[in-house]
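Q: Joint fold for the lines below.
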Amino acid sequence: MQTDLITQLILCVPEIMIATGALALLLTGVFIRGYSYTIVTWLAIAVLVAAVVLLATSPCDGTVFGDALIIDAFSRFSKILMLVSTIAVLVISMSCARAEKFDKFEFPVLILLATLGMMLMISAGNMLSLYLSLELQSLALYALTAINRDNLRSTEAGLKYFILGSLSSGLLLYGISLLYGYTGYIGFAEIADVIAKQRIQPGLMFGIVFVIAGLAFKISAVPFHMWTPDVYEGSPTPVTAFFASAAKVAAVALMSRVIISVFGASVTVVSDSMPVWQKMIIFIALASMMLGAFAGIGQHNIKRLMAYSSITHMGYVLVGLAAGTVTGIQSVIIYMVIYVAMTLGCFAFILAMNNHDGYVENIYDLAGLIRNNPFMTIIMTICLFSLAGVPMLAGFFGKWHTLGAAVGAGFVPLAVVGILSSVIAAFYYIRLIRLMWFDEPKAPFRDVPIDLCLVLILSGSFILFYIFFGIWISPWAEQAAQSLFLML
Amino acid sequence: MLSGLAAVFFYLFSFVMIVSATTVVVTRNTFHSVLFLILSFFNAAALFLLAGAEFLAIVLLVIYVGAVAVLFLFVIMMLDVDLITLRRYRMPRYAPVGILAGIVLLMELIVVFISSNVVQMANNLAYPTPDIAMRSNTQALGDILYTDYVFYFEIAGLVLLVAMIGAITLTLRHKTGVRRQSIAEQVARMPKTSIEIRKIESNKGL
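A: Joint structure:
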């Protein structure tokens, strides 16, 4: 697949554009000082939109810089999804950034650099580019978490995330070094080759376990989820939205690629027991679904609630991944599309929870919202019903696909636990709906800014009319899923 | 294998390095332990020189002694770690857990090494070591960093840039009312704007 340099560079033009865009915007921000935040944010959105257009219109596949980056249908799909959610996050961040006084031009620049890290993560083709892109993304996210530096909780969340994040990076690196030591390669394809040929040695197994643990930390799956509620609660809400949408998409895409194209090779070896990665993923999926569903019940802070909700949803995504088939990966991709739409809708709603005391996060402040603000209430109700998995809304189809893939691969108990935990999790979603519709009204919220309205309407209508969108998302996702298996 | 004078120096540098590295851990004064750390860096650089890696030796001195060790010294002087309470109250509490974790890791390593074929692993080397006589160190490193691995080099650069932006965003505070030197302003001063000439009548004062 080796081609000349120009062809390779053309393949990664979106990445180059975002990198140079971030640097140019950094300089722009320094030079214009005064009102630089607004200008730099809009320019960053323009750069991201241009990257989406480029990705959507260039159908070339290939590898760049040896095997550092793999450009295929899967990476294109995930990148577009990730970039669209980043654009939405930047749009909804503006009013909050001004009100909470972190309207610095570094904010959009750091978001752009994190986005670059995520794009490289999605198309990483060897362990070196995997680690470097993961660090680029994580470092930018650590700084973003603490960006509201005069707020004690924001800095605490930043420090917590930094320490736990570097610990998980250490685990990942240890795993990678074991994989390198036992196979002699860092490229995904070569490692898969070695794994497919020989029996798995204990050292190699340790390597696989550590790599999966490091990646599971990034998608906040149980038992590596401890940081999630604190960091979600402490960091500024737009940053939380970024964590919950774009960062999750990138990490799930990376995990799918590593599992399918590196460890997945061990499936082909005839053996009487399940491969080690599958056991691990099944355990993580079960634990995430159950813990997210139970622990969310006691939460009264809506951001913590969203954190537990995201843990549960990552459990469902991993159910699809555990199947390890084309249908499984397709279901993962579809689930991520739906999850991003629901999450962005919810966070746009949380950003609109703004009364005369400033931003509020307690769920009891939502009481009786239907009488003060029916528009917000109806959209949020749609989002919550969809998160709970009520039929005919988007969330139902997401669960239907992943659980269906699990049943197709013969994991019926996994699907049963999935359904049970979705019933349990429905409790806290429906409690929110009851609060909004039937309780006595509290202090009304301020008028919803136009940018939040836009995101609310978009995500609400996507969720409500997913039946129509799903028809053309499914084949696209299937094509993306198949490209992941093509590399084997 | 080493022989003759090279062997003597090898054992000398290695011995001093091991002793100073041990002293880093056991000495009571943190300041002294940083100084011993510098000593062990020096010896490591000398070992690199013996191995024919002159570029790495110099880079080790410049970066580790010149920057990292100085940073350590700054940190020690700023943090003022209270070693006595640390030793008396904290150590007994945390030491068993630390030792346990260390033993578990050691056992894992031993299990891994016993159970796997170490000889076969040596054959898995992706690249053979090139001949030093053919290409100088610096050239070989340059080839790898700026040609084969240029992509990773650029990304590493971006990672450092993110760290810098993050550090500045999180800590820099623009104080108001601080008088800064502005050279442009100083150069642009004219006698007209800065000197005021007044006629003062005698015996009146200002």
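Q: Anything notable?
A: Chain A has a mean pLDDT of 90. The CA atoms of residues 89 and 242 of chain A lie 6 Å apart.
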